[in-house]
């Protein structure tokens, strides 16, 4: 029987310089399958607005959608750590953040993830004080796609890069348990990782972080439309879904994924 994955497990991975695997999940059956394959963290991502609902961004997703899918995944998961996203505009005030996070935790989440930067510090502290582990999602934050003018690599210039590193340090000091970095140059991820002591999860951020995450539909080749460059199809060459999840888990653990062609 594998041990359940907890926040402590992620901290130990960072301390041991060993990598952990994360995948999005939205339903009980595939959550059970990924969990059985050894995937360390399951994220109920607001990417469900794109891969389940068919929108071109994540903005239409509601807190009720997230609660529903968190319940579904919670009933399938056994050992994996369950993280859930706060969707667009459920983060307006600290009070609303506490309320939204409370609803996700009651639905079965064990950690919540919020998109943002240093301005989240007060809410992060409020959540941490109440026993809610928080992951802050930085870099390419898809809920800001219209402010960015597209899904673009973030932190390419030195001013932006330094700003992101300082924000991560502020959030760690505020009580963030984990940082997730999306679509940044590999060297920035490496610098940010060295500047904080909490576990860092990357997507399109290169191999020099502690955890890797992908959208499940992307790594199964089930996404309609353009797939980001940091994605690898793990179903191609696998005999079953569970084999594909295991191949991903092992490639991450052994740091064979991401490779150079998946990095910015
Ligand atoms: N299916 C899916 N996969 C994801 O990774 C994902 C979602 N949906 N929905 C929410 C966000 C949106 N994401 C995206 C979507 C596209 C790119 C993309 O096309 N990026 C370009 C980089 C462009 C540049 O160089 O600035 C790429 O080539 O990968 C990146 C992240 C990540 N998240
Ligand atoms: C891509 C991951 C990090 C995410 O936030 C999501 O799936 O919503
Ligand atoms: Mg998300």
TrEMBL record:
CDD domains in UniProt: KPHMT-like
EC number: 2.1.2.11
Pathway membership: Cofactor biosynthesis; (R)-pantothenate biosynthesis; (R)-pantoate from 3-methyl-2-oxobutanoate: step 1/2
Cofactor(s) the protein requires to work: Mg(2+)
Cellular location(s): Cytoplasm
Main location class: cytoplasm
Protein name from the UniProt record: 3-methyl-2-oxobutanoate hydroxymethyltransferase
Designated gene of the protein: panB
């Amino acid at each position: 029987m594998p041990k359940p994955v907890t926040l402590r497990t992620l901290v130990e991975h960072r301390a041991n310089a060993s990598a952990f695997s994360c995948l999005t999940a939205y339903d009980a059956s595939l959550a059970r399958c990924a969990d059985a394959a050894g995937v360390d963290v399951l994220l109920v991502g607001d990417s469900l607005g794109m891969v389940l609902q068919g929108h071109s961004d994540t903005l239409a997703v509601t807190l009720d959608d997230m609660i529903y899918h968190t319940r579904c995944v919670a009933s399938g998961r056994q050992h994996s750590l369950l993280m859930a996203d706060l969707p667009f505009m459920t983060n307006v005030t600290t009070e609303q953040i506490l309320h939204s996070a409370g609803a996700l935790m009651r639905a079965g989440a064990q950690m919540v993830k919020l998109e943002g930067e240093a301005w989240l510090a007060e809410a992060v502290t409020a959540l941490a004080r109440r026993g809610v582990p928080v992951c802050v999602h930085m870099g390419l934050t898809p809920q800001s796609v219209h402010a960015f003018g597209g899904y673009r690599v973030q932190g390419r210039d030195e001013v932006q890069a330094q700003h992101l590193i300082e924000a991560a340090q502020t959030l760690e000091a505020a009580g963030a348990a984990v940082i997730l970095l999306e679509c940044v140059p590999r060297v920035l991820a490496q610098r940010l990782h060295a500047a904080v002591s909490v576990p860092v999860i990357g997507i399109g951020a290169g191999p020099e972080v502690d955890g890797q995450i992908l959208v499940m539909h992307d790594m199964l080749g089930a996404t309609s439309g353009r797939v980001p460059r940091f994605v690898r199809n793990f179903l191609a060459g696998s005999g079953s879904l569970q084999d594909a999840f295991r191949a991903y888990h092992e490639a991450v653990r052994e740091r064979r994924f991401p490779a150079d062609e998946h990095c910015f």
